[in-house]
Amino acid sequence: MPGLTQLIAMLAAFLVLIHANPSDNGPCYFTVIQVVNPKHIRRSPEYLYARALSKYGQDHSALVARDMLQLNGSVIATPEKDDESFLSPITIGNQTMLVNIDTGSADFWVFSSLLPEDQRKGHVYYTPGPDATKLDNYNWSVTYGDGTFAQGEVFLDNVTLGGVSVHSQAVEAAT
């Protein structure tokens, strides 16, 4: 029976044999196109600040009380450069839709045909096609800091973004 040292040496030799050398195909990149979201509503800094306080359970009553005084005044405000909301085209299955790519979230969820009709109104939504696979007993849910949430079922489908395709990508379909 081989000793521990011999086992480690055999394992190391085996790992060297199975190590795959990646091929150097040069640099790889892709581009994600962004378009201005026509439904984006610019909000005042005061509104955004009060909303942020409320979102995290902080008292914002002083801001509300001050706003209720309806004091008049003026100030020159210059919007931040490129202060817009952007959407990017993504193809799921055979459907292309514009989505907000939220880099602060690990969830890839979309409105879906599984939602009640009144909740789909005004949204482009994903309809799982014949090539999509529903993952039985897989569900998802996400709750945001402002108390809103989404939940649903998980499908595997082909997804293309910026010319890069991923086969059998998990897609969280809101229900």
UniProtKB/TrEMBL annotation:
Gene3D superfamilies, per database record: Acid Proteases
Record bears the keyword Signal: yes
Signal peptide: 1-20
Residue stretches making up the Peptidase A1 domain: 86-175
Keywords: Signal
Coiled-coil residue windows: none
InterPro entries: PEPTIDASE_A1, Peptidase_aspartic_dom_sf
Record's protein name: Peptidase A1 domain-containing protein
Organism for this UniProt entry: Emydomyces testavorans
Record lineage: Eukaryota, Fungi, Dikarya, Ascomycota, Pezizomycotina
